[in-house]
């Protein structure tokens, strides 16, 4: 993604913003036994030029995002 590399070289300050949160699973968020609360299958999945990040929980997002950016800009 050349556009991302160009942003890093031109930016004075970069701020990561949040958006929609998608979860694999089923059930209600109110149910502690719901599969929506599983956090044991996190990480970065790459298929060709497609990258999917499953944070498992919000606090893992920034670290995984840094990894993706380092990989893209390397």
Mind explaining what this structure looks like?
- The protein has 74 residues and is α+β, with helices and mostly antiparallel strands.
- It has a domain of 44 residues.
- It is 30% helix and 14% strand.
- The chain is built from two helices and two strands; from the N terminus they run αββα.
- Strands 1-2 form a two-stranded antiparallel ribbon.
- Strand 1 and strand 2 form a beta hairpin.
- The termini are close together.
Given the helix and strand composition, which structural class is it?
alpha+beta
Task: Please tally the β strands and state the result.
Answer: 2
Order of helices and strands: HEEH
Largest sheet: 2 strands, antiparallel
Task: Give the oligomeric state of the chains in this entry, treating copies of one chain as homo and distinct chains as hetero.
Answer: single chain
Shape: elongated
- Spans where pLDDT lies below 50 across 5 or more residues: none
Q: Give the termini separation.
A: 11 Å
Residues in β-strands, percent: 5-15%
Radius of gyration: 15 Å
Q: Level of helix content?
A: 25-40%
**What number is the mean pLDDT?**
80
Read across the widest sheet, the strand sequence of neighbours is 1-2
Number of helices: 2
């Amino acid at each position: 993604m050349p556009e991302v590399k160009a942003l890093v070289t031109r930016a004075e300050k970069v701020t990561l913003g949040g958006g929609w949160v998608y979860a694999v699973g089923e059930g209600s968020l109110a149910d502690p036994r719901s599969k929506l609360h599983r956090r044991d299958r996190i990480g970065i999945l790459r298929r060709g030029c497609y990258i999917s990040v499953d944070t498992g929980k919000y606090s893992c997002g920034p670290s995984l995002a840094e990894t993706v950016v380092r990989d893209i800009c390397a």
